[in-house]
Amino acid sequence: MESEKPTLDKPRLDTRALIQTGVFTALYVVVLAVFGQLGALVPILQVLGPFYIPLVCGVPFMLFVARVKAFGQITIMGVLAGVLVFLTGQSWVVLVLAVVLAPAADLIAKTGGYKSFVRTAAAYVVFSEMLIGMVVPLFFLREEFIERIAARHDASWVDSLVNLTPPWVFWAMIGMIAVGAVAGALLGRSLTVKHFRPAGLA
Asked: Structural domain tally of the chain?
């Protein structure tokens, strides 16, 4: 009689994983929203947002990935984040990019078993690039965007933003997101190892 071979249960998206994903998505979006509002203070922060937003958002993202067990969690997080950001009044481009880039990021992280820092950092870079959709109106729907922000800021603020954002800055912002995401992954890993893991949060 042949003995049955032991089978390993593959990680799957169960109720606990979905709840966990929802919680960390909310945390990610809150951090994104809070630091994203800094751009309304002075124009230079609007320009630097593509760097510092993925930097700080790297903390909840890396803490989340430390708990990820199944493919699909990063995808769900990205798509939900895209929906929520879109609902706050941001460009629909964010949502489209989220639908495309979140599964790609999930696949990259999966190739490292959600344990490889290099693969996870690369996944976070791809994941974060959806944020470029937030500035698309500034560069490609410029007149409409300027008219909208002119209702909330004085002429000197608007002029300063216009002067700080010639067309080439859009491409620079894509690079800023990548650099900020790498820095955010490093920061997130450091805090996870030094603080969250010892506290039983990762």
From this structure: 1
